[in-house]
Amino acid sequence: VQLQASGGGLVQAGGSLRLSCAVFGRTVRNYVMGWFRQAPGKEREFVAAINLSGNTFYADSVKGRFTISRDNAKNTGYLQMNSLKPEDTAVYYCAAGQLGFNYWGQGTLVTVSS
């Protein structure tokens, strides 16, 4: 299984970005998908996840601003990020799995300027 994340970039505070995670080799509908991030000098942290039923889960720090979704027809997951803050600056990783997140994509850098 391969995951390819894209969509990162530089954005001003208050702006929006949409990250994509294309999944190759498996059908995304059979997997829980998640997004994690790692800021400079910090540990990787959970951001959001969507389970097989479409239920979503968010870290408190992004709740109400970020939305995770999945397009089964395109075999792709998404993370819509609105009202971005400088503290959202990090490398964002997508992940997928059935019992835990077994598969990880490469990171995509999100930089939010103040």
Descriptive key words:
114 residues; mainly beta; 7-stranded mixed β-sheet
Q: What would a concise description of this structure say?
A:
This protein has no helices and eleven strands. With 114 residues, it is an all-beta fold.
List the SSEs and their pairings.
Blueprint: E1 2-6, E2 9-12, E3 17-24, E4 32-38, E5 45-50, E6 56-58, E7 66-71, E8 76-81, E9 90-97, E10 103-104, E11 108-113
Parallel strand pairs: 2-11
Antiparallel strand pairs: 1-3, 3-8, 4-5, 4-9, 5-6, 7-8, 9-10, 9-11
Which spans of ≥5 residues are poorly predicted at pLDDT below 50?
none
Q: Roughly what is the average pLDDT, rounded to an integer? A: 96
Overall SS class = mainly beta
Task: State the assembly state of the protein chains.
Answer: single chain
Q: List the secondary-structure elements in sequence, H or E.
A: EEEEEEEEEEE
Distance between the termini: 37 Å
Number of helices: 0
Gross morphology: globular
Proportion of β residues? over 45%
Overall helicity: under 10%
The major beta sheet can be summarized as: 7 strands, mixed
Determine Rg (CA atoms, Å): 13 Å
Question: How many strand segments?
Answer: 11
Q: What do these coordinates show?
A:
By secondary structure, this protein is mainly β. It is built from no helices and eleven strands. The strands form two sheets. Strands 2, 4, 5, 6, 9, 10 and 11 form a seven-stranded mixed sheet that branches. Strands 1-3-8-7 form a four-stranded antiparallel sheet, with no helix packed on it. A hairpin with a 5-residue loop joins strand 9 (90-97) and strand 10. The N and C termini lie far apart (37 Å). The model has no long low-confidence stretch (mean pLDDT 96).
